Structures are given as structure tokens and as C-alpha cells.
């Protein structure tokens, strides 16, 4: 099951031109991640094929399972 859903229609998003895209609504969708502790936007780090998230405010890595992910219209 995919966790990438359109914020408008809840349809599954596709990957297009380096960003998420909703085929139903025909608009790109941005994925943003927020710190579970301080609510700052997290920086996504790509390491060895798996993504991790870094909080510049807490100055530490955040576990992917705790990160709050928000999809919004780009
Ligand atoms: Zn949609
Ligand atoms: Zn933080």
C-alpha cells in the first residue's frame, strides 16, 4: 500500500519529472517532512538508498517512523 496520497483527492500519487504528481487533479504535489519534537521542517538526506531526516533546530537525525509527513499542492 502506498503512503503517498494527494491532499485533495486522496488518490495515489505518481512520480513525474522529479516530483510527486496527482494524475486525477493534474497538479504537482510537494512532500514535506516536519520534526516530531520541535515542528521545524526537516532536511531530507539520502544515504545508501535509504532516506533519513535531519532537524536543523534539534541538530540531530530523526527516525523516519516518527517524522510527520505532509503532502501539499506545489
Ligand atoms: Zn488529486
Ligand atoms: Zn527538531
Topology:
Layout: E1 14-16, E2 19-22, E3 27-34, E4 43-47, E5 50-55, E6 60-62, E7 68-73
Antiparallel strand pairs: 1-2, 2-3, 3-7, 4-5, 5-6
The structure holds zinc ion (2 copies).
One zinc ion (ZN) binds at residues 6, 8-9, 11, 22, 24-25.
Instruction: State the share of residues found in helices, binned by percent.
Output: under 10%
- The CATH class: Mainly Beta
Q: What are the low-pLDDT stretches, counting only 5+ consecutive residues below 50?
A: none
Overall morphology: elongated
In the CATH hierarchy, the third-tier topology is known as Rubredoxin-like
Write down how many β-strands occur, each being a DSSP E stretch of 2 or more residues.
7
Classify the secondary structure makeup into a structural class.
mainly beta
Overall pLDDT metric: 91
Distance from first to last alpha carbon: 23 Å
The CATH architecture can be named as Ribbon
Please, how many helices? 0
InterPro entries: DUF1407/YfgJ-like_sf, YfgJ-like
Organism: Photobacterium alginatilyticum
Keywords: Ligase
Protein name: DNA ligase
Key attributes of the depicted protein:
3-stranded antiparallel beta sheet; DNA ligase; mainly beta; ligase activity; 4-stranded antiparallel beta sheet; binds zinc ion; DUF1407/YfgJ-like_sf; Rubredoxin-like; 74 residues
Amino acid at each position: 500500500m502506498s503512503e503517498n496520497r494527494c491532499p485533495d483527492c486522496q488518490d495515489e500519487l505518481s512520480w513525474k519529472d522529479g516530483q510527486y504528481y496527482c494524475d486525477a487533479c493534474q497538479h504537482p504535489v510537494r512532500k514535506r517532512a516536519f520534526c516530531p519534537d520541535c515542528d521545524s521542517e526537516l532536511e531530507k538526506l539520502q544515504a545508501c538508498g535509504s532516506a533519513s531526516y535531519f532537524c536543523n533546530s534539534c541538530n540531530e537525525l530523526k527516525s523516519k517512523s516518527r517524522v510527520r509527513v505532509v503532502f501539499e499542492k506545489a
